[in-house]
Amino acid sequence: MPSSSKEIDRDPLGEDSSEAIHQLPRIGDSDINDNANKLSEKYIEPTVSVNEVNDKGYEPNIEQEEVIVVENADQLVSHVVDPRDDPDLPVLTFRFWFLGAGLACFGAVLAEIYYFKPQNASVSALFQFIIAYVLGNLMAAVIPSKGKWRYLNPGPFNIKEHAAIVIFSSTASVSTAEAVTIVAILNLYYNIEINPGVAIIQTWATQCIGYAVCGVLQSSLIYPTYAVWPETLPYMSLLQSMHFGGMLNKKRMKFFWIVFIGIFCWEIVPSWMFPLLTAVSIICLADNGRHTVVRQLFGAGSPNEGLGLFSFSFDWILITQAYPLWWPFNSRWNSWIGLLICYALMMGGYYSNVGEGRTNGLPFMSTSIFTSNGTSYQQSKILDSNNALNMTAYQEYGRPYYTSTYQLSLATHNPSCGAAVMHVLLWHYKDILAGWAGIRLGNKNLDVKDPHYEKMKAYKVVPQWAYLIVFVVSMAVSAIILGFLKAVTGFDTSINGIVQLIAAFLHPGKPIANMYASLYGYYAPLQTLYMLKDQKLGQYAKVPPRVVFIAQFCETFLGATLNYCIYRSIMSAHREILKDPVGSRIWSGWNLQGTNSKAITFGALGKQMYTGNGPYWFIPACLGIGLVLPIPFWLMYRRFPKQIIWRDLNTPIITNYMGWLPYSVNGMWWSGALIGFMSQWWARKYRPRWFVKYNYLLSASLDGGTQVVYFILNFAIFGAAGAAKDFPY
């Protein structure tokens, strides 16, 4: 799911926290594991190895089976993902280390660049798939393979080697490390310069804490069939097309390269030559800027311009943020309900002057904080030399204000969090119990009926004690880091798994402590999701678990270092733009602004802003609302189990998307909705053969082409390595 998003982030309280919601299995898929077991028994597995498949041109099994309409998880993983395996294929080869490290550097650099973009773009692993495939086959062709050379070239470039390289390169490039974000905020807003070595080690530690949690979640979120992780399906479609022989896959690869080249050429137009195509609104063009309300509701081409109703984008780098080709239709229509409510909620909230956002002259959309007259809030005026709240100065200067739309977005995210907890407890409590049973058994001898998990039993798992060591060491290093920051900057915090709302009351008046509480209590576990996604890819591709473990940790250390280096380069070149509440079409600090705004209001002013007498008391109160939201729908489902509406209605997704729009650029949603409908409903139902063969491959080719050309444009045109160059007038 684009992976993730976050992975960035339309979510007001964190980087791609909605990815956790996206991964929730479809409600009502009864006894998926038993069904998957039956399908795996029915599956006619070839008796030849993968290398023999390539030599003999064996057609994938998908052509031998009756074409069916893919409806649920067991059908998806059995008909889209081929379960064949050859345990003898080499994985930890010279190609793995050379290409994995090189592409890890490439992806980490790109992820950090994207973090400072207004388009909310993120790095897709698909372009890394493409480059790894080309270079891997080139190395296999040109490096001698006889004698001692066989250690550098053990034979043909294989599917496991390829998947392991991508896991190596994508683990930390899926998004910028949040620890680097905090370092950037301290520099930009607090004039605190963290020692580079401390900053990098801090990043390693926080990410490794998240990784350590994976060891206890595999039995419930990796091994079973219901844990599909839809974002990995385009990857597997591309991998199988590249490495399994036969005429079918030759046709697939031809299809892939045609689309790849086409989108590569096209993306130059909306990204540089004709930016209007980022979001085309016929209504705004007809209005010609005469009415502000029209721009607020229908505008979407510029950062923080409007909500983008009926705006259509022709820029795939933006459209792909709506996950148009791989997000399941059930999740998609729930998100549409939330978005439709969001349009009404944001416009109604602004024009009814929620939180005095309109009468004080605040912008319609922004994640920054403002004074009562609409100017930027100067937080340095209310903080003392230790960056803690100075109450006397605060009373003189006045409180900060959120825009009306940002207040409502924060308020709708809280019920989404509460609803997600209750939703999982009500509908998936059996899976949770099974997962805890897996922890007790040490991920051994599990009763999981999944065709891919059955093949993975041939490989040794990473022992639980290894994850425990990672956790203990990471926490120890983190304590050292926080102690260093206390000695240098004078602030302290704790790392007891709390989020910003709780931290506001445990550490009142301390915005920096609040950010670090969020880092360890929210973003470190979020890193677990990225690691779990890659581990699921490893299971689909039959990569040994210990190889996946090695690949993920190596990338963490490379990625964190490069994230920091690129941040310093961008910060020095575009500092003032990053502080601007609007930013530019090329660079924007809206991610930094949102994180810092919450640190000030939750951290420095939590009691003043969010308690019963505070202006934003309703934001934390909404958390309790979310806890009860799924209950009526669950009761209706129990009463009417055959009615689809009660089975598939997903309150966490709906409430999350109710506050999804008041950030950055919004031109992708209607284009994404149209493409998603055609893909996940029409093609899946009426063109099932095309859907299974080409849908996820199409996603891979479109994402891969745009990622490659966007990387080139950023360094050649957009100023990532120097001055930006506008297209000639």
TrEMBL record:
Signal peptide positions on this chain: none
* Protein topology in the membrane: Multi-pass membrane protein
Point to the regions of Basic and acidic residues compositional bias.
1-13
Where's it found, cell-wise? Membrane
Sequence intervals crossing the membrane: 96-116, 123-143, 163-189, 209-229, 255-286, 307-327, 333-351, 465-485, 547-567, 616-637, 657-683, 704-724
**Pfam families noted in UniProt:** OPT
Alphabetical UniProt keywords: Membrane, Peptide transport, Protein transport, Transmembrane, Transmembrane helix, Transport
UniProt record, GO biological process: protein transport
Can you name this protein?
OPT family small oligopeptide transporter
Q: Which organism is it from?
A: Kwoniella mangroviensis CBS 10435
